[in-house]
Amino acid sequence: MQLAELLNDWPCTVKGSVRCEVMRIEDHASEVTAGSIFVARKGKESNGITYIPQAILNGAVAIVVDDEHYYNSAKLTVPLIWVPNTLSFLAYSSAKIHHFPAEALTIIAVTGTNGKTTVTHLIGQLLQRLKQNVMVIGTNGVFVNGKRSFEHYQSLTTLQPKQLHALFHEAVKTGIRYVVLEASSIGLHKHRLDFSDIDIGVFLNVTEDHIEDHGSLENYKLAKQILATMAKQIIVNSDDVICRSIGFSKKGKRSFFGKGQHVDYFYQVLFEGTSYTTCLVQYKDEKHVVHIPFVGDYQCANVLAAMSVLTQLEYPLEQLCHFSEELTLPEGRFERIKNDNGLDIIIDYAHTPDAMKQLLLAVKRQAKQRVIVVFSCGGNRDQAKRPKMGMIASIYADVIMLTTDNARDEDPTTINEQIQQGFSSTQVFHEILDRKQAIFAALNEAKVGDTVVILGKGHEKTQQIGKIQSEFSDHLCVSQFLHDAQKARNDN
Ligand SMILES: CC(=O)N[C@H]1[C@@H](OP(=O)(O)OP(=O)(O)OC[C@H]2O[C@@H](n3ccc(=O)[nH]c3=O)[C@H](O)[C@@H]2O)O[C@H](CO)[C@@H](O)[C@@H]1O[C@H](C)C(=O)N[C@@H](C)C(=O)N[C@H](CCC(=O)O)C(=O)O
Ligand SMILES: Nc1ncnc2c1ncn2[C@@H]1O[C@H](COP(=O)(O)OP(=O)(O)OP(=O)(O)O)[C@@H](O)[C@H]1O
Known about the structure:
Blueprint: H1 3-7, E1 13-15, E2 24-26, E3 36-39, H2 52-57, E4 62-65, H3 68-73, E5 80-82, H4 86-97, E6 106-111, H5 116-129, E7 134-138, E8 141-144, E9 147-149, H6 161-173, E10 178-182, H7 185-189, E11 200-203, H8 211-214, H9 217-230, E12 233-237, H10 241-249, E13 253-258, E14 265-272, E15 277-283, E16 286-292, H11 297-312, H12 317-323, E17 335-337, E18 344-348, H13 353-366, E19 371-375, H14 385-396, E20 399-402, H15 412-420, E21 428-431, H16 435-445, E22 451-455, E23 462-465, E24 468-471, H17 474-491
Parallel strand pairs: 2-3, 3-4, 4-5, 6-10, 6-11, 7-10, 11-12, 12-13, 13-14, 18-22, 19-20, 19-22, 20-21
Antiparallel strand pairs: 1-5, 7-8, 8-9, 14-15, 15-16, 17-18, 23-24
The structure holds ligand UAG and adenosine-5'-triphosphate (ATP).
C-alpha cells in the first residue's frame, strides 16, 4: 500500500515524500524489514525513538512519532510522520494495511478480571460443535478450530494490533467466520483493540488486578468499560456490581446473565457432584436442565456466558445445553492430575484474590480431608493483593506452602512476608522458595484423602526470576513426583 493511501484518513503531518510502498507496520526496531514503517512509541521500559536509527538501518521506509519536539528537530533520511497518538495509529494502520479484515468477521471479545481464557475457549468449543470455523486468541495462544497455531506469536492476553490484524486477515483468507478473543484492561487502554470491529463484548467480572498499571480500581474499571463503547452489543454478568453498572450505561443492545432476578439468561445450581454440576438454565420461555462437566459456581457462570453469546448469534439454546456436557477447560484451569496415591491434585491458574476465593470455595466443598495450598504472588505487580490472597488461602487451607511465582525483580521472601500478613495467627505454613521443592514437599506432606492445590501458574511453561526466564511447569513437577513415588513403590 502507498504511504499516501495509508495516511489518507488519519490526522498527521509529514516531513518528506509519501510516495513509497509500505509492506508492514512495526513497533519493534529489530523486527523492521525493508518496506516497514516504524512506529516509535513510548513504552514502560524504553522509548521507541531511541531505536529509530536501528529501524532505518533495517530498512524502514518511514518513521512515525507522537513526540512534537522530536518531530520538529529531527532530520532523518526517510520521511518522518507526526500523529497525535502512536498507539491508536498502530491499531489504525495495522487494520488498514490488511484492508480492515475484522469487518468481514464476527468478532467476540471477552473481558473480566478472571475467566477470559476459559470463556473464550468455551465459546470456541460450542462453535466447533456447531461445525463453524473459529479462531480463539488469548493468554494460552492462538487456536484454530481447537488446534494450537501461530506458536511463534508472543503470549499476551490481548495481542498487539500488528499481530491481531494479521491474524484477522489470515482468518478471512482461510474461511474462518468467528474470532473469539480476550480483551485485557491493558490491551483496551493501550488501543490494541481499536478498529477490531467487535460484534459482541462479554463482561464477566471486575474485581482487583493490574492496579499497578492503571493506578486505581476506578481507572481499571474505565479501561474495561472501553469494550462497552466499542462493541455493537454486550453481554453482562448481572451478579457483578461493576459489570452491571457498565451494562446499564451501555447505549445499544445489551443482555444480562446471572443468578438474580430480571436477567435475560438465568441459571441456578441444582446439584454439585465431584466432577460435574447440574444447573437449571432459563432464557425467555425456555427451561433446560444442564449437566456441566466442571465444579464451582463460577464455572456455571462461565458456561452460561458462553451459551448467551451463542444464543445471541441465533444458535438454539437447546442444542447448546446438550453440547455443554462435552465442554472441557483450557490447560491449567482446574486441572486434576490422576494418581495412584489417593490424593486429589489440582493445578489452577488462580492469581487474583477473587479467582483464588472462587477456586478454593469449590475445592473446599468437596475436599475429603485436608487442603494443602502451594502458592505465592508475582513480583513487580500489585502488592495490595498479596495479604488479601494470604487471607483467602488462610480461610480455606489447612496447610500453606509458600513458594515463588514469577518473582521478577522482587525478593520472593519479601513477597511471602506480605502474603503472611493476611494469615490467621494459627495458620500452619512452610516456605520453600524453590517451587519444584515446594510442590514435592506439599505432595510428600499429603496423606490419602488430602487435596493438594497448586496455584498461580496453570498452563505456564516458564518462571521468571530477576530478568531470567527458566523453563518451569507445575504439571511436569507433579508428574515427576508421581513417577518417582511409583518407582519407589515398585522397588519396595
Ligand atoms: C505493559 C505492556 O503493555 N508491556 C508491553 C509493551 O511494553 P512497553 O510498552 O513497556 O514497551 P517498551 O519495552 O518500553 O518499549 C517501548 C517501545 O520501544 C520498542 N523497542 C523496545 C526495545 C528494543 O530493543 N527495541 C524496540 O524497538 C518497543 O517495541 C516499543 O514499541 O510492549 C512490549 C512490546 O510489544 C510488550 O512485550 C510488553 O508486554 C509485556 C511482555 C507484558 O508482559 N505485558 C503484560 C503486562 C500485558 O500486556 N498484559 C496484558 C494483560 C494481562 C492480563 O490481563 O492478565 C495483556 O493483554 O497481555
Ligand atoms: N468467572 C470466574 N470468576 C472468578 N474466577 C474465575 C472465573 N473463571 C475462572 N476463574 C479463576 O481464574 C483463573 C484464571 O482463569 P482464566 O485464565 O480463564 O482467566 P483470565 O481472565 O483469562 O486470566 P488472565 O487475564 O490472567 O489470563 C482460573 O484458573 C480460576 O481459578
